[in-house]
Fold each of these.
Amino acid sequence: MGNDPGMHNSNANHARKCGNTVYKCENVDDHMEMYRKAADYINSRIDGTPGIAVVLGSGLGPLADSIEQPVEIDYRDIPGFPETTVAGHAGKLVCGILGGRRVLAMKGRFHYYEGYDISQVVFHIRVFGLMGISGLIVTNAAGGINTSFRPGDLMLITDHISFFAPSPLRGRNLDEFGPRFPDMCEAYDRSLIEYAEGIAESMGIELKKGVYAFAQGPMYETPAEIRALRALGADAVGMSTVPEVITARHCGMKVLGISCITNMAAGILDQKLDHSEVMDTARKTEKAFIRLVSEIIARWGS
Ligand code: HPA
């Protein structure tokens, strides 16, 4: 990436900000080398290749506690990984067995609003791709835009809107991962959506379905922005997930996305938005969410 001074500088800036090793990316091969080093390091610490990676959103971290034979890897030990900065996000990978399947859970993700470059926000996804992980479950907390939703609802993500976000694929394409202009018609795998719906039904868990809109944050949206997003077709809004999903699809991974609706989005109720409300609802919904995701993993591919 040395031919792209912007990319080079921003990576160096990021490294300074996060106190990480500075990787000098003189060309595409050097850039790939960064991902390979991280993948090799993780592989050297774990047994076997996980089939599924799960990115745990706000309040869902406890899912990692159900993983058997866990190997915990701090992000700060993985070459090239940024460190998380948000309180309540632990910042480690937990690899092991869940429901009889080999999984890798990501406890704490990198948000654009924390100041990372967009390429750093999705670094882990490319590393998972290189490790040969073929399925990705992304979870998050989101504000409900669809007025039939209620705080505490779980929503299967059927599609997303990311007009207002920089693309994680911006810059020179790394052909090893995928094509320059990847298709996004089925960002969220249709058969996985049907599969998750079936599992939820068999467990008596009600699931909503809808379109997730990405907002850069960290401020919550204005009521006018929420009305605009509704007019565009969004059912929920949040500050994560979409860059990861775009990158995962570029790598050819199959994606299932689930949001916990933690609050009604700005302007729907006559009250201010408060991060503690978001965390409270995430905690209250945690048990059902964890049961559902664990069962989805346990029956994955069967
Ligand atoms: N907006 C954006 N992100 C969020 C929200 C919201 O209302 N709730 C949880 N994450």
Note: Residues 19 and 299 are 40 Å apart (CA to CA).
Amino acid sequence: MVGGKVALFVGRRKPAGSVRQKPTALFVGRFQPLHKGHLFALRHIAKQSARVYIVIGSSQEKKTEKNPFSAQQRLAMMRAVLVKEKLAKKCKVYLLSDIPNDYEWVSYLDAHVPRYDVCYSNNALVLKLMRRAGKKVARVPLLARAKYRGEKIRERMKERKEWKSRVPKVVQEKIGARKKSG
Ligand code: NAD
């Protein structure tokens, strides 16, 4: 004990700067609907990251061909998945509407989401805009893209073909509940 203070660390300490914190990640998507490909990507991102900010984009959209589910429905799907995956503490979800000017999008997003170290996406426009704004980007690993693809799943729903096996069980339940309540 020196000067009445108790030493807080005993034993060998790592030199300053040697402790590598995992980064904070950003994952942007429309999740129309949230499918098993999104889940595969999310699990990968969560493993690499200390914290994940998930942005549900195009939040103003609903009941259209490309965006049938409302922001609240997509939020409910995402929350159910995060709870099921035990990721609710690590991940925080934000809703973000689109803006007319793509070149203002990254600063608009940054005004609504806390600071992040890396943006995960495979969307060419998102990657381009993020890179242009000087952000670090990483691609998400793809899972059987021909099968797990929002557009394909929406098509199958419309044509009344089997689609349930392509989304996580908890998402099936959320979509089922929506259909029952009209
Ligand atoms: P999405 O739900 O289609 O995809 C989200 C992510 O999941 C993508 O990176 C995609 O590659 C990945 N993914 C899809 N299938 C997968 C699979 N099988 N395996 C693994 N990963 C898979 O969402 P999106 O269209 O990429 O979302 C981008 C959002 O950003 C949109 O809401 C868009 O409007 C918004 N945006 C807005 C502006 C603007 O407002 N001006 C500009 C750029 C982007």
Note: Strands lie at 24-29, 51-56, 91-95, 118-120, 136-138.
